[in-house]
């Protein structure tokens, strides 16, 4: 072994001196100018920029209605409210996702039921969803993991047969498509996040899209305490009176956040193209690397590549995923893990009695996965650094 091959974690020279993050926002002068104009306007919270952003977002995903809220988690919560989820109901969620996908069910006093995932794609397995339907099931939440759309056709079949709703958690998948259908126009309700690592950011924020006028109206009320009219409607009617008709929340998003989200949205096509280009470079480089496999991609879909996730071939390595994780971090590559199975978190074990063995594929694959850096301003040189670090670490740990 030459000196250059010594892993940084063992005292060798790292591939990079400064850490390359796994994800990062891109803010330009147009974003800054839009926020600063909003700050100097008459509105800080809900004003004309919220409505303008909602219209632009609905147009971008091909949905009749978009309702903007304060986070992706609030978007999921509002979608559960619109779908009529309440105590005694069950909602099927994939075992591998961010905790918020299951939490929104628990917020409604309902029970999340965990379905296993396809180990090649980490997308929810429609057959396991069908197997977990009971007379109490009201909805399934489809997570477009990493930015790849789920098998909505198969899920739609299961949902149609059992008269349950399909709610999309597309927090990873803004800009993804199934054939010519855009994510956001496929499920009954679809939630998106505007967190800084996602495709379009407002700092914090979220959006729900739907074709239902009634759902959109109920979610607009839900984000404003369940009050039937908003401030502007009362001003126009010349009255101070209002009725609170539902138990809602303050899930409003501000006008200056929507100013940012609107200029960000305009850059979505370019940033998606760059994410896909980075994925193509990774795919090509990893064909000749024996110790890992990128997640499989489905035929006929356009992937939005929020994340680039690989599975380590642990039977060919002398290290665990956590050891590879530590070695990659030491090389200056900000790898991450998405996600530990949700049903194994202490809260779910205690509150819902979940346990290891419920979703065997999810539990097995969760030990093999590693998320590599992916964001639109990554340079080709950054991509080369990641490939060099993967190759170096792989060589050191190959059996
Ligand atoms: C980011 C994310 C959320 C939550 O979004 P926030 O805006 O952070 O509240 C929910 N589900 C998934 C799959 C996510 O990636």
Describe this structure in words.
This protein is an alpha/beta fold and 399 residues long. It is built from 14 helices and 13 strands. It has a seven-stranded mixed β-sheet with strand order 1-9-8-5-4-2-3, sandwiched between helices. Strands 7-6-11 form a three-stranded antiparallel β-sheet, with no helix packed on it. The longest helix has 19 residues, at 268-286. It starts with 28 loop residues before the first helix and ends with a helix. Pyridoxal-5'-phosphate binds next to α3 and α4.
Structural class: alpha/beta
How much of the residues is beta strand, in percent? Answer: 5-15%
Distance between the termini: 15 Å
**H/E element order:** HHEHEHEHEHEEEEEHHHHEEEHHHEH
Q: What spatial form do the alpha-carbon principal axes imply?
A: globular
What ligands are attached or bound here?
Answer: pyridoxal-5'-phosphate
Count all strands and give the number: 13
Helix content: 25-40%
What is the strand arrangement across the widest sheet? 1-9-8-5-4-2-3
Largest beta-sheet characterization: 7 strands, mixed
Low-pLDDT regions: none
The oligomeric state of the chains shown is single chain
How confident is the prediction overall: mean pLDDT? Answer: 97
Q: What is the count of helical runs?
A: 14
Radius of gyration: 22 Å
């Amino acid at each position: 072994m030459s000196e250059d091959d010594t892993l940084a974690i063992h005292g060798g020279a790292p591939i990079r001196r400064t850490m390359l993050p796994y994800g990062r926002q891109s803010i330009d002068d147009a974003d800054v100018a839009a926020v600063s104009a909003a700050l100097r306007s008459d509105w800080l919270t809900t004003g004309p920029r919220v409505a303008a952003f909602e219209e632009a977002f609905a147009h971008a995903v091909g949905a009749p209605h978009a309702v903007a809220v304060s986070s992706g988690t609030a978007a999921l919560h509002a979608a559960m409210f619109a779908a009529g989820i309440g105590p005694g109901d069950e909602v099927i969620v994939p075992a591998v996702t961010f905790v918020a996908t299951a939490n929104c069910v628990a917020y409604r006093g309902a029970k999340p039921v965990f379905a296993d995932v396809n180990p090649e794609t980490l997308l929810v397995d429609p057959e396991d969803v069908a197997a977990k339907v009971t007379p109490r099931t009201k909805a399934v939440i489809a997570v477009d993991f990493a930015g790849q759309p789920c098998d909505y056709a198969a899920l739609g079949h299961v949902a149609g047969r059992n008269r349950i709703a399909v709610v999309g958690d597309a927090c990873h998948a803004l800009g993804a498509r199934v054939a010519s259908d855009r994510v956001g126009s496929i499920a009954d309700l679809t939630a998106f996040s505007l967190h800084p690592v996602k495709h379009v950011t407002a700092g914090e924020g979220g959006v729900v899209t739907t074709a239902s006028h009634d759902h959109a109206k109920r979610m607009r009320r839900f984000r404003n305490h369940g009050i039937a009219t908003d401030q502007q409607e009362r001003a126009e009617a010349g009255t101070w009176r209002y009725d609170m008709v539902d138990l809602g929340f303050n899930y409003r998003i501000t006008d200056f956040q929507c100013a940012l989200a609107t200029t960000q949205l305009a850059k979505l096509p370019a940033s998606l193209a760059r994410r896909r280009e980075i994925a193509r470079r990774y795919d090509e480089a990893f064909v000749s690397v024996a110790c890992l496999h990128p997640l499989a991609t489905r035929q006929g879909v356009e992937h939005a590549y929020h994340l680039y996730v690989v599975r380590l071939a642990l039977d060919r390595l002398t290290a665990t995923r956590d050891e590879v994780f530590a070695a990659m971090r030491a090389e200056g590559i900000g790898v991450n893990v998405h996600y530990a199975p949700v049903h194994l978190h202490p809260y779910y074990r205690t509150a819902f009695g979940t346990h290891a063995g419920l979703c065997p594929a999810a539990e097995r694959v969760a030990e093999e996965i590693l998320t590599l850096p992916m964001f639109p301003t990554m340079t080709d040189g950054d991509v080369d650094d990641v490939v060099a670090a993967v190759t170096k670490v792989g060589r050191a740990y190959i059996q």
